[in-house]
Amino acid sequence: MMTPNIHPIPRLHSLPATLPLEGAVRIELEEGIPVFRASSPVQERIETLLGKRRTLGLSAEEEQELERYEEMDDYLSFLNRLVRNLLQAETQKNL
């Protein structure tokens, strides 16, 4: 019997102060599988921070904000992998 490949659940230490309370995450369907992504305004903020980091550098607060967004992205990626893997396992089981 195969042992499932278990990954630790990522922890979010805090959320970015600029993260909107509503509309921060959108759900799209890809091949019938829900995929969680940051909303367009959140993606724009991340791109702004990354651009500023490359050109001017970030303040300590902005660097911390970007780190929170990276943690959030890791968490969404984990959720997406979990959902995809569960649905694939269910499909294999039903074959």
What's the structural blueprint in terms of helices and strands?
Layout: E1 25-30, E2 33-38, H1 40-55, H2 60-94
Antiparallel strand pairs: 1-2
Helix pairs in contact: 1-2
Which bin fits the share of residues in helices? 40-55%
Strand order of the largest sheet: 1-2
Tell me the count of domains.
1
Please state the CA-atom Rg, rounded to the nearest Å: 17 Å
Note the run of SSEs as H and E.
Answer: EEHH
Task: Tell me the structural class.
Answer: alpha+beta
Report on the biggest sheet: 2 strands, antiparallel
Overall, the morphology is elongated
Q: Distance N terminus to C terminus?
A: 18 Å
Q: What is the number of E strands?
A: 2
Task: Looking at this protein, list some descriptive labels.
95 residues; alpha+beta; two-stranded antiparallel sheet; 2 strands
Summarize it:
The protein is 54% helix and 13% strand. It is α+β, with helices and mostly antiparallel strands and 95 residues long. The model has no long low-confidence stretch (mean pLDDT 88).
